[in-house]
Amino acid sequence: MKLKLDDQGHAVLQDGFPVYLHADGKEVPFDAAGTVNTITRLNAEAKSHREGKEAAETALKAFEGIADPAAAKHALETVSKLDQKKLVDAGEIDKVRDEIGKAYQAKLDASETKAHTFEKQLYEEKIGGAFSRSKYIAEKLAIPADLVQSKFGAAFKVEDGKTIAYDQHGQKIYSRTRPGEIADFDEAVETLVEQYPHRDHILKGSGASGSGASNNGGNGGNGKKSLSRSQFDALDPQGKHAHVSAGGEVTD
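The line above is the sequence of DUF6651 domain-containing protein; the predicted structure tokens follow.
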């Protein structure tokens, strides 16, 4: 990254933060204080993980010297069937255990079904609601929020109550303005759109740029994008739908 300077050689600020230029030309304000706090938090987490690992290794030392884990497990099961005064019929104990297991499994299945329903409702509210309320989608994209969700919705997951996006390589999308922190919804959508090969067909006219952007082709500046028949046929179904939904035209 390079620090952006004005004509007098002074650092350019945005919202009180110095602006840096990334390799792809994107200008991003850098929150140094937030980054320091993130590094401190990550160091604390690393210490906690290390201490947990050391505690687990200490606990495992109690099992050193056991050559046959399966035999040890069998011995423990046998001891669990012993009464203090007499040996109870293991077969009867197994029957009781099976009945208890069936009842427990039925309750577990019911709980999992209910949890799955709640999880689906939570996903629809957090993810679907985020798409419909997105300021970036409303201002920058030429297609409605439901079509954006149909294309990029699978990239979002709800984890520990938080909305997290993953890129095409299965990696979490992190914020450029808040290094070390997960990108918020609009920043994640913007990143996914930037990575989309046909992004110029879903961006509004003012947002399309670069050599791959569509031009108006003599439309008199009316904002509609025009594609030749061969260009339109080369698009995937999603791209064709997005072009038509955005009011684009196809010329022969």
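Note on the example: The helical segments are 32-60, 69-80, 90-133, 135-140, 145-152, 185-195, 229-234, 237-245. Residues 210-252 form one domain.
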